[in-house]
């Protein structure tokens, strides 16, 4: 049987295990590296300034036009 990569999902594949690797790209982890969520440095004047690294202190990213 061929390996299942998780793409082309349908009800017929619902019970199959996938060998796919997932990552989440977000403002906290813009590169999608494994285990790098919550690594943003709080800005000095922000409400999270005393929390340090490891806390979710960057909930969004401002994207400039162009």
General description of the model:
There is one protein chain. The chain is largely without helices or strands. The chain has a domain of 26 residues. Helices cover 0% and strands 0% of the residues. The chain contains no helices and no strands. The radius of gyration is 18 Å and the shape is elongated.
Keywords:
single chain, 66 residues, little secondary structure, 0% helix, elongated
Distance between the termini: 46 Å
Total helices: the number is 0
What fraction, in percent, of the residue positions are helical?
under 10%
Radius of gyration of CA atoms, rounded to a whole number? 18 Å
**Share of β-strand residues:** under 5%
Got a strand count? 0
Low-confidence region ranges:
none
- Give the overall pLDDT as a whole number: 76
| Overall geometric form | elongated
Helical/strand content category: little secondary structure
Biggest pleated-sheet summary = none
Q: Which helices and strands, and how do they pair?
A:
Layout: no helix or strand
Summarize this, please?
This protein is mostly loops.
């Amino acid at each position: 049987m061929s390996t299942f990569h998780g793409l082309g999902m349908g009800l017929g594949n619902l019970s199959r295990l996938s060998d796919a690797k997932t990552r989440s790209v977000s403002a906290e982890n813009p590169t999608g590296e494994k285990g790098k969520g919550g690594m943003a440095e709080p800005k000095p004047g922000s409400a999270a300034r005393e929390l340090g690294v490891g806390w979710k202190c960057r909930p969004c990213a401002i994207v400039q036009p162009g």
